[in-house]
Records
---
Amino acid sequence: MSRNRIANRKRILVTGGAGFLGSHLCERLLADGAEVLCVDSFYSGTRDNVRHLVSNPHFEVLRHDVTESLTVEVDEIYNLACPASPIHYQRDPIHTMKTSVFGAMNMLGLAKRTGAKILQASTSEVYGDPEVHPQIEHYWGRVNPIGLRSCYDEGKRAAESLFFDYHRMHGVRIKVPRIFNTYGPRMHPNDGRVISNFVVQSLNGEELTIYGEGSQTRSFCYVSDLIEGFVRLMATPDDVTGPINLGNPEEFTIRELAELTTELTGAAAAVRFLPLPSDDPVQRRPDIKRARDLLGWHPEIKLRDGLAKTIDYFRDVAGNAG
Ligand code: NAD
Ligand code: UDP
């Protein structure tokens, strides 16, 4: 019997563990007393995100691409590996699709062999540019299957299919959260997501780049709220599979987000309007009734407060770099 078993620590694999969400998740799982294996190809994540964890004897980092199979012994798997921002996932769309599909198959195969529970980081992008608002889990979505976002959207949809087929065919214990726009410290400063862009631009005294007229909406969830949702979902009984929306139901236009950012940084409120990217969803807001009922979960951090923490983080990073 291994030392870990004797210590009775849960062994948890986090793929994409060196990314934005993954690094916060690893931190949380270690704090909860688990043995954590962080697997990452460093495609969009960095060692810096987990540097503060490497001295912990219960934490291990393995460079590995999830499109290749992996043989480890674990009790739980959080499958987060996948570039998440449009700039990153569109850079090599074929590899993005492979990451979602082959990555899901490899991790599901691992879950099947080990009997581990497995959580898939799915996304609100499975709803595409939705006609149903707010988005509820039984809505099937409106995704352009051949557009620039399809490598990500269809990859994530295929991964959901695989999860439910492994569950039905092989009894694999699955958990499928659909994550809505999440933000916070350790977002990549150059990955083009709206909050990191606006904060970095504002702190640098640059114009904020609003795509389209800025009337499109998003609902922003602070990272600690999301991680709490993950952990609660993983702990649910086996008949709770999801899909289950995790996100903050407070909805803002992109223009409102720009105004709030400049208010909080104290910078001059200059904006520049750029063309709207193709297939950019017009509106997005989660219906979180299922998460409230099944997990007793709801987000606690208001955008104003989470944004202030995120601004502090980017200020510190810039200060340390300078
Ligand atoms: P991120 O880019 O910071 O993290 C993804 C991590 O996966 C990175 O560390 C990257 O290097 C790693 N990775 C990518 N391809 C890999 C591969 N083939 N093999 C191994 N590692 C690989 O993004 P994030 O925001 O932390 O997103 C984490 C997960 O959550 C993703 O699956 C994403 O689709 C999902 N998600 C995130 C959001 C959000 O708003 N942050 C919303 C919906 C879904
Ligand atoms: N966006 C913007 N300016 C930016 C970056 C993004 O206006 O500098 C818009 C983008 O067009 C989208 C919204 O902000 O409507 C959210 O974009 P993000 O890439 O963060 O997430 P997603 O589109 O995947 O929800």
---
Amino acid sequence: MEFKQGDWVRIEKNGTVYEGKVMPSMEGYITIKMKSGYNAGFSIDKVRITLLENNGEAANGGNGGKNGVKEPETATENIYEPGKKLPKIAILSTGGTIASKIDYRTGAVSSQFTADDILAAIPELKKIADFKGRVISSILSENMDSDSWQNLARAVVEEIEAGADGIIITHGTDTMMYSAAALSFMIETSVPIVFVGSQRSADRPSSDNAMNAICAARVAISEIAEIVVVMHGTTSDDFCEIHRGTKVRKMHTSRRDAFKSVNSLPVGTVDYRTGEIKTFVDYIRRGEKSLKFKPGMEPKCALVKFTPGADPAVLDYYINNGYRGLVIEGTGLGHVSTKWIPFIRKAVDAKMPVIITSQCLNGRICDRVYDTGRDMLKAGAIEGEDTLPETSLVKLMWVLGQTDDFEKAVDMLRKDLSGEITECTCR
Ligand code: GLU
């Protein structure tokens, strides 16, 4: 029997009947996605296949679902509805699980969906805004670098200049907080810029992609004109949290509520069912600031973790190889062993800013309590306050991308530039 990808078929095997949509399949096999969202694969010569609806007819009212989140008729619908007076959102896709499906050649999940595919797969989005899709990349976020951040930031700025009322960036979750921090330093925004991803690919019934994307769209048309991350707030499908791009961290490998604000409350929550947004902290409102783009990132910066007994000579590598700044993830209040202190001094003498952050993540650096801390300050280390180590690294890269002047860079690094340092009530 002839069938092609997207057809709706019935498969009979050993007296059991399966129905579903034909997925990309290996030669000699047929793989279908069933209504339950599960995929099933069969050897063609062992089953009886009946075509129920071909791809074209299914597009006009068939059943079944692409990626388990939509009925096939929406797959070919025009996602742009320019006649409607809905807010305009540009959705920029970079890759990651939210854009992933199983590659039937390798059996691995890989980023294959474009922004338009994501929009087509989640028809509810069309009720919220008029969307324009744009593909920035199709990569897993571990492959991002500072050039990727700048390209992304440039595209975001172009879309805002072209009239977008809000931006959604679909992104792999692993390094989403780095990209969100990078855009937070590079862009002063007049509209919401929302990062969203998913922990479970769209092929899986427990995928979080639809809820996260819908909540992200609610935030993109809201009053919160900041760079934020919107992801599941709990393991249930009840609400998403809105995290400031400089205060957020992925804190779990696989849970859907992996993202947490650290040293700050989330900016707010979005109710999945009602779309209601509740906010918990002050935020910059739509139109309060005008759009400014400040690109420039120095890639030669490193984040080094101190561990008991670690050889400080590791810092020599960076000092002797053209690195321009370091973030150290110290212990507790922000410590390294006394052996490391002369190496910190050496880096500072080489005009490399050295920022101290903490492996505790929660809490604030205070190097005034113990001897080692005081000696680190004397050696020229900068206390990272309550900034996350990753955010400190991105801040350092951005600051060194703005100035070659060491004193000026240190001065900028001590200040709160984009919500990364919360006010200290402890001193
Ligand atoms: N490691 C991949 C990435 O960060 C997949 C993880 C995800 O998107 O959740 O892009």
